[in-house]
Amino acid sequence: MKLNCDLGESYGAWSMPMESDIMAQIDQANIACGFHAGDPLVMKQAILLAKQHNVAIGAHPAYPDLQGFGRRSMAIACEELVAMIQYQVVALSGMAGVCSAMVSYVKPHGALYNDMMKNTEVRRTVMRSIAELNARTSRVPLTLMVQATSQNEALLKEAEEWGLPLFFEAFSDRRYTDEGLLQSRTIKGSVLNENEALLQAKQLCSAGTVTTASGKTLQIEADSLCVHGDTKNAVNIARKIRTFL
What class, spelled out in words, does domain 2-171+223-229 have in CATH? Predict the structure, then answer.
């Protein structure tokens, strides 16, 4: 099991100072591309930090929503969303090239991620956008990171249509619904505290299961475990997860 975190999410005067601490604990850094957070300097600094710690770099594209931190769903036409995702991935990839580094995967952010998991049309649009990028380069194909659910096999079949490899991830710090998706942040208790997150991470790693908000146990087969960079005590959570991993 790998450990990933959403990073590069400072913007202008808004700073997320713990990034240098958490980068040393993770395997994969999902770096914001400017639409929900991040700016050119922040992106470059995050890439260099990931390179320093030998951490895999992932593009973290979002809906164009700086004010809402990309956590508000938007109705965007297919062609426009394809272009938006490609624009963000190419921007981060270009900056990575300047730093002699490489983007190896894509993990959509926030509302775009949730919509991708719930809506087949949005998911196919995301897959198409990355597949088109892969078709126009000779490097190793970008992998798409999606949420691990009971539908992993169906998602793999969808991705095969686009020739797209997948990473499946689970979440240490978010409450799950009985459907295996993430409970809305508007519901109290949806973001787990440090102790809850550590217990959930241990359960996911040792048993491959998660306990939902109603107490139901779900089987989760994941390749990577996420700690959100803006979760309270994220560095402590990541450090303790790294210890038992």
Answer: alpha beta
Q: How many residues does the chain have?
A: 245
Give domain limits for the chain: 2-171+223-229
Residue that is written with structure tokens 């990309």 in the block: 70
Q: What is the pLDDT of residues 119-132, one digit of tens each?
A: 999 999 999 999 99
Q: Are 210 and 217 in contact (CB under 8 A)?
A: yes
Encode 168-201 in three state secondary structure.
EEEECCECECCCCCECCCCCCCCECCHHHHHHHH
- Which stretches in the chain have pLDDT values below 70? 12-18, 138
Take residue 196 and report the two structure tokens written for it.
């809850």
CA atoms within 13 A on the CB side of 67: 1
pTM above 0.85, yes or no: yes
Q: Give the angle 190-113-47 at the CA atoms, nearest 5°.
A: 100
